[in-house]
Structures are given as structure tokens and as C-alpha cells.
Recover the amino acids of this structure.
């Protein structure tokens, strides 16, 4: 398999993390997240969103969107719940991640890495949106070990990716006790790799 | 079941549409998308994102995020593919919808409905983002009847919700031929209800 990948992208890291946890082999091809001029040429036939990660399966069929890739490979493993309601809860948290978490926390981190100076009003809106997402996670994790059921699932992998580097976007993760303990639980899963 | 619902929200409409297609009965409770002051009180224990739709199942368990609700109820019906790769493709399009489509197209429509005058630069960014999403859909639908496989799935329901009212946000949907034909295919599904 070939993963169109980026070393700094949390969305790409999700896939690398699950592959490592499951011992899945793949090749990777680095794609810039700064210079996007070759995206249509590179990914146009593979991924309508022109985003990374984009995966090409062994048989040549493409698959895109980080969280859809996670679900595909987690099927039949301990990382996707077998219970229908728990599976839906895992999806709920993954859609939460892509709608309420990533567009705020990942984008602030990206701006910091790329040394982009955003409009202050826009940056503040993203900071407040990111804080609200972290507060929702903190409330949910209080008294729980993982997001769904009692073991790590794709929901944890999806939310871990940008939460564990949220400080690079200006968030004080140390303020969130339950999140801190959960990050450590993910970090000690057998097969864990760092971003 | 109780659906925390909003009459104008496309995200809520997705759930009402699938329920109608499948003949599923439910009660609904209208939640304002303008005055959000009671959201924490109303939804705090049910949905970490405090968004509608939020569903309470017959046994009292909550489920949130429109596309996660669709997958939950589509399982075992013709609206969720049985093939693992097609199921992942349906998820891919649903994550595309929540990341690249809804934040642009639904938000411009909401601003028009709520008579909110946005910052012109922000409005333009959303307009261009929405156009890119529609162009990606048009390319994919050219030569295809539905987004995944050869029949309507949850991916079509998710993308139909805000695409069929995109003109309310300023998009000229009539310019997109393949999208137009696809909208008509969804509109004539047995059990279809309008927004």
C-alpha cells in the first residue's frame, strides 16, 4: 500500500499510528502541506478532497479521509467496537473531531508551524472553539479510561492526533487532568509510535 | 425515540429523511439555531458538541452527530453498503461533507437565513470552499448515479441535505449538471420527504 503522507500532519499521523498498532506495512510518499500547487496532479484521481492522508490499497483502489481510513483498517480488530451502539459512538467522536476539534486546534498549530500571522479575530474564534472541544473531551473523560467502552478505539486515535500536540497551537493541555491521563494511556499502547 | 431537531437545519433534515425512507417513527423537539443560550441545559448530558441533531434512543441512550446517527440506523438496510470498501467510501464522503462542504455551504445559507452580515473576506473564503466541494461532487457524479456503488446510501443523504438548498447560500446549483440529475434521483426515492 502507498500512503500519501505528511510528517507534520496529525491527520496523516492517525493512519501511521493505527498501522503501527496493528503491524500493517506500507510505503509512504511525502506531500507538502505548504506548497499545494501539485495537489490536483498528485491526488486528483484518488481523492476528491485533495487532502492527505490519501491511501492507495494493494489492488490500486484509493481511500481518503483519515477517519474513514481508520475505520476501514480497524474493522475486525480490537480498535473498532463490535457493539452497534459503541461503533456509532466511535463515529460520533470522529465526526466531532473533524468538525469541532481539528478545524480549530490543528489550524492554529499549522499557522504556528508555517509562521502564518492570522487575522486576530479569526485566531480568537479558533482558540475559543478549540477550548470548547477540549472542555467537552475533559468532561467526557472524567471517570473514563477511553472515549468509547473500556479500551482504545479509533475514536481515541482520531482525537489523540491533534490533542497531544495542541500546545504547539497555544493550548495549555496541562490544565486538563483527565485529558492528560488519557494521553498517557494512548502513549503506552503496545506498538505506539510518535508523530 | 426523541429527536432534538431544527426545522431549517440540513444536519437535522438528514435524520428526518433517513427515518422517512426507512419508515422509522420518532418524536421531535424543536431547538433554536439562533438563540443557543439553553443548549448546555438542554443537551449538555446528551451531546458533547451541544449540536442538533441529538437523538435519544428508546432505551434513553443518546447519540449525536448527524452522520453517525445515519450510519447507526442504516446498518442492516440498503442504505449502508455491505461491502467493506464501499462502506469506507460512504464514510469518506460523509467526512468530506462535514469537513469540506457543510462548514462552507451550510454556513453561508445560515448567514443568509439569519440575516447575518459576515466579514467579506470570510464570506469569500467560504464561497470558494463551497465551490470546490461542489466541483469535486460534480466530477465524481459525472457518469455515476449515486456516490457509492449503484444505489442511494447514507453518503447521498448526507450530501443531499445542504446541496439541494445551496442556492439559499448563493450557489448556482443549476450550473452543475451531474449534481442536478443526482438531486432528482434522491428526490424520487420512495419515502422521500422535503426539508
Amino acid at each position: 500500500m502507498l500512503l500519501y503522507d505528511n510528517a507534520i500532519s496529525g491527520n496523516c499521523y492517525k493512519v501511521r499510528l493505527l498501522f503501527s498498532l496493528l503491524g500493517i506495512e506500507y510505503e509512504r510518499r511525502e506531500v507538502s502541506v505548504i506548497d499545494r500547487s501539485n495537489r490536483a496532479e498528485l491526488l486528483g484521481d484518488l481523492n476528491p478532497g485533495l487532502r492527505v492522508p490519501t491511501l492507495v490499497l494493494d489492488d490500486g483502489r484509493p481511500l481518503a479521509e483519515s477517519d474513514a481510513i481508520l475505520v476501514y483498517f480497524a474493522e475486525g480488530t480490537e480498535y473498532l467496537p463490535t457493539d452497534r451502539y459503541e461503533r456509532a459512538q466511535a463515529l460520533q467522536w470522529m465526526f466531532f473531531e473533524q468538525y469541532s476539534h481539528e478545524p480549530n486546534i490543528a489550524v492554529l498549530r499549522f499557522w504556528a508551524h508555517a509562521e502564518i500571522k492570522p487575522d486576530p479575530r479569526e485566531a480568537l474564534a479558533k482558540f475559543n472553539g478549540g477550548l470548547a472541544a477540549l472542555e467537552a473531551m475533559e468532561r467526557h473523560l472524567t471517570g473514563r479510561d477511553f472515549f468509547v467502552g473500556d479500551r482504545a478505539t479509533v475514536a481515541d486515535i482520531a482525537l489523540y492526533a491533534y490533542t497531544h500536540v495542541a500546545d504547539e497551537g497555544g493550548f495549555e493541555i496541562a490544565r486538563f487532568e483527565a485529558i492528560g491521563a488519557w494521553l498517557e494511556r494512548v502513549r503506552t499502547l503496545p506498538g505506539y509510535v510518535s508523530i
Observations:
- Chain A touches chain B through 37 residues (CB under 8 Å).
- The first strand of chain A starts at residue 2 and ends at 5.
- Chain A has two domains: 2-74, 84-187.
